[in-house]
Specification:
Layout (H helix, E strand, L loop, with lengths): L4 H4 L5 E5 L23 H13 L4 E5 L9 H10 L3 E6 L16 E5 L12 H14 L4 E6 L2 H4 L2 H10 L3 E5 L13 H4 L3 H16 L4 E2 L4 H5 L10 E4 L5 E2 L13 H4 L1 H8 L18
Parallel strand pairs: 1-2, 1-8, 2-3, 3-4, 4-5, 5-6, 6-7
Antiparallel strand pairs: 8-9
Helix pairs in contact: 2-3
Length: 290
């Protein structure tokens, strides 16, 4: 089902920029670190930001991989903020304390908190990331904790929420992601909570939120159990390290998308916007044009 970009006018209010596939961790549900692309240079990212601002983009989120592995990340954040866009950065927290100066102008710093099921590294990542969040908070940054619900951390939610509350962190909950690149990962199903576990956790979180806890994220069980659905909104796009433009991150590995480096980002976004992506894209492929 193809729609003209001029008909649906899909212009990017929000853009997620996967600034690099390089990561300093290896997580069981993700194989992104084995991918490599010729990353956009500093100058190319700056030019991209100018084009995005001209198209009406209000928010650009730097993701990865681990975006703090880019040596120019501070320069890029400052440039985007200088263009008048809100900025956000998602990180595992390992490099945050080292990069506090570079993060000074980020609008929102989202630090992912794992429990004990994700990264295959020896040191306790949870404590390290929590300490990084506390340090960034004390430095005056707008910090939130980001928690992906997994089998291992559902039972630990009270302890994790208490830790976050003790240092004044808001908490955003996310479903376990399965990117197009990692769709075949054999560990995914064993890490994903079953429906009963999820529904119990979401009821618990909903009660806390009604009582005033600083929690956000969709708390509908249907959102968290639909792991194969595409949650792209009509006014958001994702851009890969080399400049490919897609409606959402989960679709990057499904087909070849228009590239902003070669076409210009205005043209690439217009072209990607021709593809209407309903939420059933993975489960009912017949309803979309992919």
């Amino acid at each position: 089902m193809e729609r003209s970009c001029f008909w649906c006018d899909r212009l990017p209010v929000s853009v997620s920029f996967i600034s690099t596939y390089i990561c300093n961790l290896v997580c069981e549900h993700c194989d992104i670190c084995r991918f490599r692309e010729e990353e956009l240079s500093t100058a190319e990212v700056k030019a991209m930001a100018i084009e995005l601002k001209g198209l009406g983009t209000a928010l650009i989120t730097f993701e990865g991989g681990e975006p703090l592995t880019r040596a120019d990340i501070g320069e890029l954040l400052a440039h985007c903020a200088g263009q008048g866009m809100a900025t956000a950065l998602s990180t595992n927290g390992v490099l945050v304390e080292e990069y506090l100066r570079e993060l000074a102008c980020v609008g929102r710093l989202s630090i992912r908190l794992f429990w004990d099921d994700g990264p295959t590294e020896r040191e306790p990542l949870y404590e390290r990331s929590l300490k990084a969040a506390e340090t960034a908070k004390k430095a005056g940054l707008n910090v939130e904790a980001s928690i992906v619900l997994t089998k291992a951390n559902i039972s630990a939610l009270p302890a994790m929420l208490a830790d976050c509350s003790s240092i004044g962190l808001s908490v955003r909950f996310r479903r376990l992601p399965r990117d197009g690149h990692s769709a075949g990962n054999s560990r995914f199903s064993s890490i994903r909570p079953d429906n009963v576990e999820l529904e119990g956790a979401l009821r618990y979180l909903s009660v806390l939120k009604r009582k005033g806890a600083a929690l956000s994220g969709p708390f509908a069980a249907s959102v968290f159990t639909g792991v194969d659905e595409c949650l792209s909104e009509e006014r958001s796009f994702v851009i890969s390290p080399s400049g490919d433009v897609a409606p959402c991150r989960g679709l990057l590995g499904v087909r070849k998308w228009p590239n902003g480096r070669s076409l210009g980002f205005r043209a690439a976004i217009r072209k990607a916007g021709e593809y209407y992506c309903p939420s059933e894209v993975f489960t009912h492929r017949g309803v979309c044009n992919l």
